[in-house]
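Example 397, ligand EPS.
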Amino acid sequence: MPIRFLTAGESHGPMLTAIVEGLPAGIPISAEAVNEDLARRQAGYGSGGRMSIERDAVQISAGVVAGHTTGAPVALHVANRDYKNWREKDIEALTTPRPGHADLTGALKYGYRELRLSLERASARETTMRVAVGALCKAYLAQFGVRIGGYVVQIGGVRANIPEQPDYKRLFELAEANDVRTPDPDSAEAMHEAIRQAKIDKDTLGGVMELVALDVPPGLGSHVHHDRRLDAKIVAAMVSIQAMKGAEIGQAFAQAGLPGSQVHDEMDVDAEGRITRRSNRAGGLEGGITTGDPVVVRVAMKPIATMLRGADSVDLATGQPSKTVYERSDFCALPRAVPIGEAMLAIVLADALLEKLGGDSIEEMLPRFAALRRNRTQDLPMNAQPWRFNYPYDGGL
Ligand code: EPS
């Protein structure tokens, strides 16, 4: 794992912190570019009151000098503006766990006598720092022409229409143009309406987002061992995001019901010896290795656990049945989850590309990137001879 990162910070504490280790020297970094992604994470219909309090802006206090990474660990901080509203407050005891949140499981694991201690760290407020770390990884990937974007494809029961082999850059743009971050303008209104109805019903909604990486070189990841398969790393990274309960590469679950002839991406060869595909149903990964086609991952978010209508639970202080207590929350956080998914994909891909290229500076890596083997017959010379295993040990037979 060339890239390692840690985050620290509670949802209503003074600040959030991240340290990223393993980025090479020479990546141009601007706080403005990080802040753009932080602002995208704050925008979208369906948010609660908290997003009108916070104005996330990064402080970079180590590892970036004169606008470039030095190769040293990068330290990042984002202030919680809401902290001043909590600092002097006598906080009500929280003793009734919300089904679907970490309230109960956190207390069970750590022996908390106050459920707020679980929610403070389980909160998706922490994803602010993942987006900041992801922005650094996006800047690294951009040096090699790799671009990452995403959009919403489903909110509640409303599904967007996405063409089979779309112009992804156009989809990224279209998605930024509406408040539910979907590239299908016809579905945007219905999604907005579904969230509005959920608010009226004092309920919450989840959905599905799609993250895409473009111009990823072939050959990242590996089939040789379980913990080197890139599809597994991507899925794990996605499901590590708060409230994400499932992830698939391409349309894995739909493909599970189809015959192979309707799933696999058949190959052609052009006059220059380039091997092309007629489709990208594999979502850019075969054998845990990138194919060179767009990497496409879809992530399912459960509806947020904090519901205005409350849910049946148990007051642990009295041992009696009790409704959960509502303070404040998002109704649907999926539109603003897209930059978080992008960030996690950027982190995993940056890590894989660093591993492939080796080296300590962008300068060292650029020629190595240019020399990578591609999907061309001239890059894939075959022996085309009969051969034998000839293992050094023949199994004692
Ligand atoms: C969250 C609850 C809400 C969300 C929060 C995640 O916060 P609060 O309890 O302060 O109203 O707004 O998300 C963020 C603060 C954020 O920055 O995304 C939760 O319980 O997970």
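Summary: Residues 250 and 315 are 43 Å apart (CA to CA).
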